[in-house]
Each structure stands twice: as C-alpha cells, then as structure tokens.
Amino acid sequence: MDANSVTAICATVIAVASLVVSITEARASRRHNFQSVRPLLSLDCLRLNSGLAGIRIRNAGLGPAIIRVTTLFLDGEEVGPWEKQVVDPLRGTFAVWPNFSTLRPGKPIPVGQELMLLAIEDYDPTRDAEFWAAVTRRIRIYVQYESLYANERQEAWFEGSPSRKIELPWQGSDAARSSIDSDAQTGPSQPL
To answer: pLDDT for 109-124, tens place per residue?
Structure first.
C-alpha cells in the first residue's frame, strides 16, 4: 500500500464522515423547525371574580394551532361540530344567553391567545346554576388541530370538572384513606 492509496482512503473516510454529519445536522434542524412552531391547546372551565364564567381554550404552545375537527358531546352523546347551529339550541336552555365563539375547520388560534368558547360575563351562582352544571358536568368538547407544517395532528379534550377522588402520594392503597375532592373550590379567581 503506497502513500497515494492511504491518502485516497483517508479522503474517502473524511468525505463519508462529513456526509453523515451533514445529514444528521439537517435532520436535527428540521426537527427543531417543527418543534419551534408546535401548538399546544388547552381547554378548561373557569369562574373569575369579575363575573366571567365558562369554557376557555388557549394556545400555550410555540406556534399557531390550525383547527381541523371539533365535536360537541352533551351528556355523553355526540351532538355535532362546535358551530353556531349546533350550540345555539343548548344556549337557549340557560337563564342567560351565553356568549359563544366558534371553532371552524381551518381557523387559526395564535400563540398566547385565549378564547372563551361559551361564557357568561355576569355569572350569578343562583341564576346560572344550570349553566355551571352544564359546563362542569354535561359538556365535553373534542378538538383536533395541527401546526403550520401540517405534519402532525394533535388532540385536546374539554372534560369539564368532574368530581373525583385523588389519592395522596403518601397514602398506600391498602391503608384507610381520606381523599380530596379535586372539584373543591380553591378560589374564585383560579381556573376550576
């Protein structure tokens, strides 16, 4: 093996290593670009001291969320998409006509935006008890969305605020337990 052969082998090894590094770097860059605009929708119910109560959707991700599919469930039964003609009959059953925001396919929800899907601005616990019961126990909403790249469909659910017992970490499964009702009011200015 002469010096020219060794030089050629070394040059080939360096070229192949450079190609592998370039491919790995390109994949990492692509993955970073996808993650840098990934949305994260969350749905929750809230009651504020200001009197606002209802269902809120917000984008806590890094990029806009593009709505693809929405479905309203009432008392466990599928009603239809979260659109005016589907939700209006439900809105008519409450003492006060709640405000409403639609989630049509293709609608973007920008980064950091909060949107009240169904809300009463001047909530009264006595007058609006039926509304709050519907928000916390009867209404479920399914939302499928994606990022600008349309590379990955994600899902978000609104499940109300059902009463459920949670086990404290220090309690064993066999021990006599006291439990906490996770639906208990922690304060009127916090999401429930």
So the answer is: 999 999 999 999 999 9
Map residue 134 onto helix, strand or coil: helix
Distances from the Cα of 84 to the Cα of 120, 134, 168, angstroms: 16, 17, 42
The DSSP output letter for 136 is: I
pTM of the model: 0.70
69 CB contacts (<8 Å, ≥6 apart)?
A: 81, 105, 142, 143, 144
Nearest to 137 by CA among 55, 39, 61, 18: 55
Task: State which amino acid sits at residue 38.
Answer: R
Rounded alpha-carbon distances, angstroms, from residue 91 to 88, 110, 135, 156, 162: 5, 26, 11, 23, 21
